Amino acid sequence: MTTPATTTRTVLEATGVTMRFGGLTAVRDVDLTVDTGEIVGLIGPNGAGKTTFFNCLTGLYTPAEGTISYRGTRLSRKPHLVTQAGIARTFQNIRLFANMTVLENVLVGRHTRTKEGLWSALLRSPGFRKAERDSEQRAMELLDFTGLATQRDHLARNLPYGEQRKLEIARALASEPGLLLLDEPTAGMNPQETRATQDLVRAIRTQGTAVLVIEHDMRFIFNLCDRVAVLVQGQKLVEGTADTVQADERVIAAYLGTPTDPTTPPGETPATTDDTGATP
Ligand SMILES: Nc1ncnc2c1ncn2[C@@H]1O[C@H](COP(=O)(O)OP(=O)(O)OP(=O)(O)O)[C@@H](O)[C@H]1O
Protein backbone atom coordinates (compact mmCIF):
# COMPACT_ATOMS: atom_id res chain seq x y z
CA MET A 1 0.00 0.00 0.00
CA THR A 2 1.54 3.36 -0.93
CA THR A 3 0.92 6.73 0.65
CA PRO A 4 0.17 9.30 -2.07
CA ALA A 5 1.45 12.26 0.01
CA THR A 6 4.90 10.72 0.25
CA THR A 7 7.59 12.17 -1.98
CA THR A 8 10.41 10.07 -3.35
CA ARG A 9 12.73 11.90 -0.97
CA THR A 10 10.74 10.82 2.08
CA VAL A 11 12.29 7.90 3.91
CA LEU A 12 9.99 7.83 6.91
CA GLU A 13 6.51 9.24 7.24
CA ALA A 14 4.69 8.84 10.54
CA THR A 15 1.22 10.37 10.70
CA GLY A 16 -1.02 10.79 13.73
CA VAL A 17 0.81 8.21 15.83
CA THR A 18 -0.87 7.66 19.20
CA MET A 19 0.19 5.08 21.79
CA ARG A 20 -1.59 4.44 25.06
CA PHE A 21 -0.66 2.36 28.08
CA GLY A 22 -3.96 1.91 29.92
CA GLY A 23 -5.01 5.44 30.88
CA LEU A 24 -1.70 7.03 29.94
CA THR A 25 -1.30 8.50 26.47
CA ALA A 26 2.47 8.22 26.05
CA VAL A 27 2.47 9.45 22.42
CA ARG A 28 -0.34 11.60 21.08
CA ASP A 29 -1.05 12.31 17.42
CA VAL A 30 2.58 12.70 16.41
CA ASP A 31 3.53 13.42 12.79
CA LEU A 32 7.16 13.14 11.75
CA THR A 33 9.01 12.73 8.48
CA VAL A 34 12.63 12.01 7.73
CA ASP A 35 13.94 12.68 4.23
CA THR A 36 16.84 11.16 2.33
CA GLY A 37 20.15 12.55 3.55
CA GLU A 38 18.70 14.04 6.73
CA ILE A 39 19.73 13.76 10.35
CA VAL A 40 16.68 14.51 12.48
CA GLY A 41 16.78 14.89 16.26
CA LEU A 42 14.00 13.90 18.64
CA ILE A 43 14.32 15.57 22.02
CA GLY A 44 12.16 16.13 25.08
CA PRO A 45 12.24 15.87 28.85
CA ASN A 46 12.30 12.48 30.60
CA GLY A 47 9.11 10.53 30.01
CA ALA A 48 8.10 12.66 26.99
CA GLY A 49 7.43 9.57 24.86
CA LYS A 50 10.55 9.48 22.69
CA THR A 51 11.44 5.81 23.15
CA THR A 52 7.78 4.82 22.96
CA PHE A 53 7.61 6.58 19.58
CA PHE A 54 10.70 4.65 18.41
CA ASN A 55 9.06 1.43 19.59
CA CYS A 56 6.00 2.28 17.50
CA LEU A 57 8.18 2.92 14.44
CA THR A 58 10.01 -0.39 14.78
CA GLY A 59 6.97 -2.60 15.40
CA LEU A 60 7.71 -3.32 19.08
CA TYR A 61 4.49 -1.50 19.94
CA THR A 62 1.33 -1.29 17.88
CA PRO A 63 0.04 2.27 18.05
CA ALA A 64 -3.64 2.79 18.84
CA GLU A 65 -3.85 5.24 15.95
CA GLY A 66 -1.74 6.50 13.09
CA THR A 67 0.19 5.22 10.12
CA ILE A 68 3.89 4.65 9.57
CA SER A 69 5.40 4.33 6.11
CA TYR A 70 8.92 3.65 4.91
CA ARG A 71 9.68 4.93 1.40
CA GLY A 72 5.96 5.19 0.69
CA THR A 73 5.00 1.69 1.86
CA ARG A 74 3.07 1.02 5.06
CA LEU A 75 5.26 -0.85 7.52
CA SER A 76 4.47 -4.25 8.96
CA ARG A 77 3.98 -4.36 12.73
CA LYS A 78 6.57 -7.17 13.06
CA PRO A 79 10.03 -5.91 14.13
CA HIS A 80 12.01 -8.29 11.87
CA LEU A 81 9.97 -7.18 8.85
CA VAL A 82 10.57 -3.54 9.75
CA THR A 83 14.31 -4.27 9.79
CA GLN A 84 14.02 -6.12 6.50
CA ALA A 85 12.17 -3.15 5.00
CA GLY A 86 15.15 -0.91 5.83
CA ILE A 87 14.88 0.52 9.35
CA ALA A 88 17.50 -0.42 11.95
CA ARG A 89 17.90 0.80 15.50
CA THR A 90 20.02 0.87 18.60
CA PHE A 91 18.65 0.78 22.12
CA GLN A 92 18.88 3.12 25.10
CA ASN A 93 20.15 0.19 27.17
CA ILE A 94 22.83 -1.56 25.14
CA ARG A 95 21.61 -4.93 23.85
CA LEU A 96 24.66 -6.76 22.55
CA PHE A 97 25.33 -10.49 22.66
CA ALA A 98 27.79 -10.12 25.53
CA ASN A 99 29.48 -13.52 25.14
CA MET A 100 29.89 -13.29 21.38
CA THR A 101 32.81 -11.59 19.68
CA VAL A 102 32.63 -8.16 18.12
CA LEU A 103 32.64 -9.70 14.63
CA GLU A 104 29.96 -12.25 15.55
CA ASN A 105 27.70 -9.48 16.85
CA VAL A 106 27.90 -7.71 13.49
CA LEU A 107 27.33 -10.98 11.62
CA VAL A 108 24.11 -11.48 13.59
CA GLY A 109 22.98 -8.10 12.24
CA ARG A 110 23.46 -9.43 8.69
CA HIS A 111 20.80 -12.12 8.95
CA THR A 112 18.01 -10.08 7.38
CA ARG A 113 20.22 -9.55 4.34
CA THR A 114 21.24 -13.19 3.88
CA LYS A 115 19.06 -15.15 1.48
CA GLU A 116 20.47 -18.61 2.26
CA GLY A 117 17.93 -20.65 4.24
CA LEU A 118 18.16 -23.14 7.07
CA TRP A 119 18.89 -26.24 4.96
CA SER A 120 21.55 -24.42 3.04
CA ALA A 121 23.19 -23.45 6.34
CA LEU A 122 22.93 -26.96 7.83
CA LEU A 123 24.34 -28.60 4.70
CA ARG A 124 26.95 -25.85 4.34
CA SER A 125 26.15 -25.63 0.64
CA PRO A 126 28.49 -23.68 -1.71
CA GLY A 127 25.85 -20.91 -1.79
CA PHE A 128 25.88 -20.72 1.98
CA ARG A 129 29.69 -20.60 2.18
CA LYS A 130 29.80 -17.80 -0.40
CA ALA A 131 27.11 -15.85 1.50
CA GLU A 132 29.09 -16.41 4.69
CA ARG A 133 32.29 -15.03 3.13
CA ASP A 134 30.43 -12.00 1.74
CA SER A 135 28.80 -11.33 5.11
CA GLU A 136 32.13 -11.52 6.89
CA GLN A 137 33.69 -9.13 4.39
CA ARG A 138 30.85 -6.64 4.86
CA ALA A 139 31.03 -7.03 8.65
CA MET A 140 34.76 -6.24 8.56
CA GLU A 141 34.08 -3.15 6.43
CA LEU A 142 31.62 -1.99 9.07
CA LEU A 143 34.11 -2.64 11.86
CA ASP A 144 36.67 -0.56 9.94
CA PHE A 145 34.06 2.15 9.43
CA THR A 146 33.20 2.31 13.13
CA GLY A 147 36.83 1.99 14.27
CA LEU A 148 36.43 -1.44 15.86
CA ALA A 149 38.39 -3.63 13.41
CA THR A 150 41.27 -4.35 15.79
CA GLN A 151 38.82 -5.64 18.42
CA ARG A 152 37.09 -8.07 16.05
CA ASP A 153 37.86 -11.12 18.19
CA HIS A 154 37.20 -9.51 21.58
CA LEU A 155 34.12 -10.53 23.49
CA ALA A 156 31.52 -7.76 23.37
CA ARG A 157 31.28 -7.68 27.16
CA ASN A 158 34.98 -6.82 27.44
CA LEU A 159 34.73 -3.67 25.33
CA PRO A 160 34.72 -0.28 27.05
CA TYR A 161 31.25 1.23 27.26
CA GLY A 162 31.74 3.76 24.43
CA GLU A 163 32.90 1.00 22.09
CA GLN A 164 29.91 -1.16 22.99
CA ARG A 165 27.72 1.70 21.80
CA LYS A 166 29.71 1.86 18.55
CA LEU A 167 29.32 -1.90 18.13
CA GLU A 168 25.56 -1.54 18.47
CA ILE A 169 25.69 0.97 15.62
CA ALA A 170 27.87 -1.37 13.50
CA ARG A 171 25.42 -4.21 14.10
CA ALA A 172 22.47 -2.01 13.14
CA LEU A 173 24.26 -0.94 9.95
CA ALA A 174 24.83 -4.59 9.05
CA SER A 175 21.20 -4.84 7.94
CA GLU A 176 21.97 -2.13 5.30
CA PRO A 177 19.27 0.26 6.54
CA GLY A 178 17.96 3.30 4.69
CA LEU A 179 17.03 4.77 8.07
CA LEU A 180 18.92 4.34 11.34
CA LEU A 181 17.20 5.09 14.65
CA LEU A 182 19.62 5.89 17.46
CA ASP A 183 18.31 5.94 21.03
CA GLU A 184 20.68 8.00 23.20
CA PRO A 185 23.86 7.00 21.36
CA THR A 186 26.15 9.09 23.59
CA ALA A 187 24.70 8.15 26.98
CA GLY A 188 27.61 7.50 29.34
CA MET A 189 30.24 8.74 26.88
CA ASN A 190 33.00 11.24 27.64
CA PRO A 191 33.21 14.43 25.52
CA GLN A 192 35.82 12.93 23.19
CA GLU A 193 33.70 9.83 22.53
CA THR A 194 30.66 12.05 21.99
CA ARG A 195 32.51 14.06 19.34
CA ALA A 196 33.61 10.84 17.64
CA THR A 197 29.99 9.66 17.61
CA GLN A 198 28.96 12.94 16.03
CA ASP A 199 31.49 12.33 13.23
CA LEU A 200 30.32 8.74 12.88
CA VAL A 201 26.67 9.79 12.47
CA ARG A 202 27.68 12.33 9.81
CA ALA A 203 29.63 9.62 7.99
CA ILE A 204 26.59 7.32 8.14
CA ARG A 205 24.52 10.04 6.49
CA THR A 206 27.21 10.56 3.83
CA GLN A 207 27.00 6.85 3.03
CA GLY A 208 23.29 7.23 2.25
CA THR A 209 21.51 6.30 5.48
CA ALA A 210 19.14 8.86 6.98
CA VAL A 211 19.24 9.13 10.78
CA LEU A 212 16.65 9.83 13.47
CA VAL A 213 18.31 10.31 16.84
CA ILE A 214 17.03 10.64 20.42
CA GLU A 215 19.53 12.34 22.68
CA HIS A 216 19.61 14.35 25.91
CA ASP A 217 22.94 15.99 25.04
CA MET A 218 21.72 19.24 23.48
CA ARG A 219 25.12 20.29 22.18
CA PHE A 220 25.29 16.99 20.26
CA ILE A 221 21.77 17.45 18.86
CA PHE A 222 22.10 21.09 17.87
CA ASN A 223 25.53 20.58 16.27
CA LEU A 224 24.45 17.58 14.30
CA CYS A 225 20.81 17.72 13.25
CA ASP A 226 19.28 19.32 10.17
CA ARG A 227 15.93 19.37 11.93
CA VAL A 228 14.84 18.83 15.53
CA ALA A 229 11.42 17.79 16.82
CA VAL A 230 10.52 18.35 20.47
CA LEU A 231 8.17 15.99 22.28
CA VAL A 232 6.57 17.09 25.52
CA GLN A 233 4.05 14.94 27.36
CA GLY A 234 3.66 12.77 24.27
CA GLN A 235 2.90 15.63 21.87
CA LYS A 236 5.09 17.30 19.30
CA LEU A 237 5.54 20.80 20.62
CA VAL A 238 7.90 22.36 18.08
CA GLU A 239 9.81 21.24 15.02
CA GLY A 240 12.45 23.15 13.09
CA THR A 241 16.11 23.98 12.77
CA ALA A 242 18.36 24.05 15.81
CA ASP A 243 18.02 27.85 15.94
CA THR A 244 14.20 27.77 15.80
CA VAL A 245 13.97 25.17 18.54
CA GLN A 246 16.51 26.84 20.81
CA ALA A 247 14.71 30.18 20.52
CA ASP A 248 11.25 28.79 21.33
CA GLU A 249 10.18 29.79 24.83
CA ARG A 250 7.82 26.81 25.15
CA VAL A 251 10.77 24.46 24.72
CA ILE A 252 12.70 26.26 27.43
CA ALA A 253 9.63 26.16 29.68
CA ALA A 254 9.21 22.43 29.07
CA TYR A 255 12.80 21.73 30.08
CA LEU A 256 12.65 23.98 33.11
CA GLY A 257 9.40 22.29 34.15
CA THR A 258 7.21 25.38 34.50
CA PRO A 259 3.75 24.60 35.85
CA THR A 260 1.92 25.85 32.71
CA ASP A 261 1.32 23.33 29.96
CA PRO A 262 4.00 24.06 27.36
CA THR A 263 2.02 22.32 24.60
CA THR A 264 -0.65 25.01 24.74
CA PRO A 265 -0.18 27.78 22.19
CA PRO A 266 -0.29 31.28 23.72
CA GLY A 267 -3.88 32.38 24.31
CA GLU A 268 -5.38 28.87 24.59
CA THR A 269 -6.53 27.07 27.72
CA PRO A 270 -4.08 24.34 28.75
CA ALA A 271 -5.34 20.73 28.75
CA THR A 272 -4.80 19.11 32.13
CA THR A 273 -6.07 15.60 31.50
CA ASP A 274 -6.16 13.31 28.51
CA ASP A 275 -9.34 11.95 27.00
CA THR A 276 -9.28 8.93 29.28
CA GLY A 277 -9.23 11.16 32.32
CA ALA A 278 -5.62 10.40 33.27
CA THR A 279 -3.07 13.13 33.70
CA PRO A 280 -0.56 12.71 30.88
N1 LIG B 1 5.65 -0.41 28.62
C1 LIG B 1 5.11 0.65 29.27
N2 LIG B 1 4.04 0.50 30.05
C2 LIG B 1 3.47 1.56 30.69
N3 LIG B 1 3.94 2.81 30.60
C3 LIG B 1 5.02 3.01 29.83
C4 LIG B 1 5.67 1.95 29.13
N4 LIG B 1 6.72 2.46 28.45
C5 LIG B 1 6.73 3.78 28.71
N5 LIG B 1 5.72 4.11 29.54
C6 LIG B 1 5.39 5.45 30.02
O1 LIG B 1 5.21 6.26 28.86
C7 LIG B 1 5.75 7.55 29.07
C8 LIG B 1 6.80 7.83 28.00
O2 LIG B 1 7.94 7.02 28.27
P1 LIG B 1 9.20 6.96 27.29
O3 LIG B 1 10.15 5.97 27.85
O4 LIG B 1 8.73 6.76 25.91
O5 LIG B 1 9.77 8.43 27.45
P2 LIG B 1 11.16 9.02 26.95
O6 LIG B 1 10.86 10.35 26.37
O7 LIG B 1 11.86 8.03 26.09
O8 LIG B 1 11.92 9.20 28.34
P3 LIG B 1 13.49 9.15 28.69
O9 LIG B 1 14.11 10.37 28.09
O10 LIG B 1 13.50 9.20 30.18
O11 LIG B 1 14.04 7.87 28.14
C9 LIG B 1 6.30 7.57 30.49
O12 LIG B 1 5.33 8.12 31.33
C10 LIG B 1 6.54 6.11 30.79
O13 LIG B 1 6.44 5.85 32.18
From TrEMBL:
CDD domains: ABC_Mj1267_LivG_branched. SUPFAM superfamilies: P-loop containing nucleoside triphosphate hydrolases. Residues 256-280 are annotated as: Disordered. The keyword Nucleotide-binding applies. Keywords: ATP-binding, Nucleotide-binding, Transport. Gene3D superfamilies: P-loop containing nucleotide triphosphate hydrolases (3.40.50.300). InterPro entries: AAA+_ATPase, ABC_AA/LPS_Transport, ABC_transporter-like_ATP-bd, BCA_ABC_TP_C, P-loop_NTPase. Residues 12-258 form the ABC transporter domain. Residues 269-280 have a biased composition (Low complexity). One of its GO terms (molecular function) is ATP binding. This is ABC transporter ATP-binding protein. It comes from Streptomyces albospinus.
